[in-house]
Amino acid sequence: MNKILSTAAYIKIKDFYIKNPSLIDKKNRIYVTASDDVDLVLKKIIDVTLPENMRTVSNDQLKYISFLNEDNRIKNQISWKLFQNSDSREPELAGLKGGIVGTLLTMFVTLIISFPIGVLAAIYLEEIAPKNRITDIIEVNINNLAAVPSIVYGLLGLAVFLNYLNMPRSAPLVGGIVLALMTLPVIIIATRAALASIPPSIREAAYGVGASQMQVIIHHVVPLALPGILTGTIIGIARAAGETAPLLMIGMMAFIVDVPSKITDKATVLPAQIYMWANNPERSFEYLTSAAILILLLILIIMNLLAILLRRKYERRW
Amino acid sequence: MKDVGKLMKKKNKIVTNNVTVDYGDKRALHGIDLKIEEKEVTALIGPSGCGKSTFIRCLNRMNDLITGCKVEGSILIDGTDINLPDTDIVELRARIGMVFQKPNPFPKSIYDNVAYGPRIHGLADSKNELDNIVHKSLKRAGLWDEVHERLDASGLSLSGGQQQRLCIARAIAVNPDVLLMDEPCSALDPIATAVIEELINELKERYTIVIVTHSMQQAARLSEKTAYFHLGKMIEYDDTSNIFTNPKHEMTEAYISGRIG
């Protein structure tokens, strides 16, 4: 029976009898999770014609599996463990919950840092700052930062946040800060474009009735530019959510079985999880990797769709 | 005798002395001296690029918004020079209303368009008072009857002429005493133009109006005084009837008879 049942099966059977002591010594039917090899045999991915020492299942196990299958004792179903469990060495138990929660925590940190700083910086640069050499240099630098390879931000995070500031390794806090730095130029550029697209006639109208510069910005320019600002922010955050390289440098590419509950816990993120699963030798991880890629893609498509809808809804023609 | 009394009461509302404007190193206005009288319509005419819009924008310091624009000389409004660095520009712009070439209502409701100025200047203590200001301003702008049932509709839902009257209502809601109009009818059809002109005729009872126009007929119909600008210089300034019937300068004559411009 060994290797046909998942390690979780024994725990499930134990729990069942602890809960129902009266059923001990009786014949009971309990469904338990099968090992990933069973799945591979049933899907005919393991070639049973190979000699026994060249495959991962023995002849005895094959006999058990075909007996159970012919007796209709094997159910094939979607494994919701994908969303209920965190990472595991056993493919049938490995799930994305840790990665999803880690991504959410990291994106939360990224958003609360990059959105206010990015938008305020863009407002300052576009509306308030005098146009001179210094602002020209800042502008060129921001445009260059948007094109810096993302792993460089990871190196920065490693050098500054981990080694110098002694922040926790593998934590969404540091990952979020690093991704925020990477997202900032994107948000600044998008916000500036949105602000610049507000026609001067609206500003003139507001100045004409005696509004101060701050009133013009807060009452008119920013509300009108908000759809563009939000679109840029969502696209920037979506890009950060799919980012792996900078997180490699700060230890978020790690085998972590606990679901993080706060931003200083050790965590991993979806793309990192995909990368790690893709590297595992067990064949079943191939399917997990595919599922995780689809889920990540779905999340990114939803975010981009949200950005498009937002822009459509509030788009204004002058 | 009554007329004489009225004439005596008229005083110079705006006096400019040697106003020059530079955009970077290009001089747009060369030493303009002009006296604009209270509660009259003064028209500024001249070919495109002659500086009349630049001049009108000096009067409420709108040129401050343009980087590289430098205004020199003194602009006295009610005897106070407003072209000084310590002038309270917010207060000045509330006193000198402006209507632009293209109708530019805020993308907000009709009510909010008019109420915006009074709100930011704290002119109304209660909702009731604000309602009154909006009502009065729309009425004076001749728009009340057309929009009073849909004050919550967007200002952009109005026709071009209505939008321009909304902009006039917005300007007079903050109780200015001067109205600057920068080609207010150039984006409108003849009917809407006629409505606005009629409105300007009523408004000059209360406000000193300076209007930039490309239409010489409009200047002749509306204004008491006309100034002719050419290439950044003021060529001639006189009563409108004199300018159009008996211009002293040959360039003025050439312009009004359609030979240049």
Question: Which characteristics define this entry?
Answer:
heterodimer, A: 318 residues, mainly alpha, MetI-like fold, B: alpha/beta, Rossmann fold, 6-stranded mixed beta sheet
Task: State the gist of this model.
The complex is a heterodimer of chains A (318) and B (261). In chain A, α10 (213-241) runs antiparallel to α13.
Instruction: Find the CATH topology of the largest domain in chain A.
Output: MetI-like fold
Largest interface: A-B, 20 and 26 residues
Assign the CATH class of chain B: Alpha Beta
Looking at the overall shape, the CATH architecture of chain B is 3-Layer(aba) Sandwich
Shape of chain B: globular
Beta strand count of chain A: 0
Order of helices and strands of chain A: HHHHHHHHHHHHH
Examine the coordinates and then state which fold CATH places here, giving the name of the CATH topology of chain B: Rossmann fold
Radius of gyration of chain A: 27 Å
The parts of chain B where pLDDT drops under 50 for at least 5 residues are none
Query: How many structurally independent domains of chain B?
Result: 1
**Ranges of chain A with pLDDT <50 over ≥5 residues?**
none
Structural Rg of chain B: 18 Å
Helical residue percent of chain B?
25-40%
What would you call the structural class of chain B? alpha/beta
Question: Largest sheet of chain B, order of strands side by side?
Answer: 6-7-8-3-9-10
Rough shape of chain A? Answer: elongated
The number of distinct helices of chain B, counting runs of at least 4 residues, comes to: 11
Mean of residue pLDDT of chain A?
A: 89
Strand percentage of chain B lies at 25-35%
Give the quaternary arrangement of the chains: heterodimer
